[in-house]
Amino acid sequence: MYCSFLHAHRMNTRSALWFVPALIWVTFTYWYTDFGGPLSDDEVARAVAYFESSGMEKERLDQFRTFFEEDTGRQFLMVNNIDINDNPPRIEGFRQDATAEDYIDHYMEHMYAELFARACHPVFFGKGLGLNVDVTGIEGAEGWDTAALLRYRSRRSLVEIITNPEIGPRHEFKLAAMTKTIAYPVEVVLYPADPRFLLFLILGFMTAMIDIFLFGRRSR
Fold first, then answer.
1. What domains sit in the chain, N to C, each tagged with a CATH number?
2. pTM for the whole thing?
3. Strands 121-127 and 76-84
4. Most buried of the four, 18, 82, 139, 202, by CB within 10 Å?
């Protein structure tokens, strides 16, 4: 009977060992993933109405409408190429000695909280090396000094962020901080650095090592 008790206790402990990391992974995945599916017609209409009210030109407005209407509900990455303005224009109401970095910090002040609350975050950030390997059919595409990838949980998250009344009015600071920039979304096809996958591997490996250390030797 005592042996049976020890066996049951061991099995319960072992089950708990695997249950805790599994619960952590499921909780993270639930937060990190948008399970709401594609944007609804009402959500698309509200998003388009917001951009229209901001004075966006029709051609760009139509591009945004198509982008929202073709939503798959999946995550995407925003690719950013940036050339920082070493002598940014002065913006009324902001201190006169402000640098481009100051403008970016002001723009991102509310942006960071909105991003991380929706599991949106930087994936990659790097400085350009001043070499243009291939430039074809694009005038003015030289001279990028910064490249960045930003992960968005979904197009719904993007809409919620950019329509925040605290962020929209600060967009001019972002533009003033750059001599030129291009940002475009790409939907992930191959993404081995997905944190859900990495967390699964890390938790699985660590738990397996603990399992072997605690229980593997006892079975021999």
1. 2-32+196-216 (no CATH), 75-187 (3.30.70.100)
2. 0.85
3. unpaired
4. 82
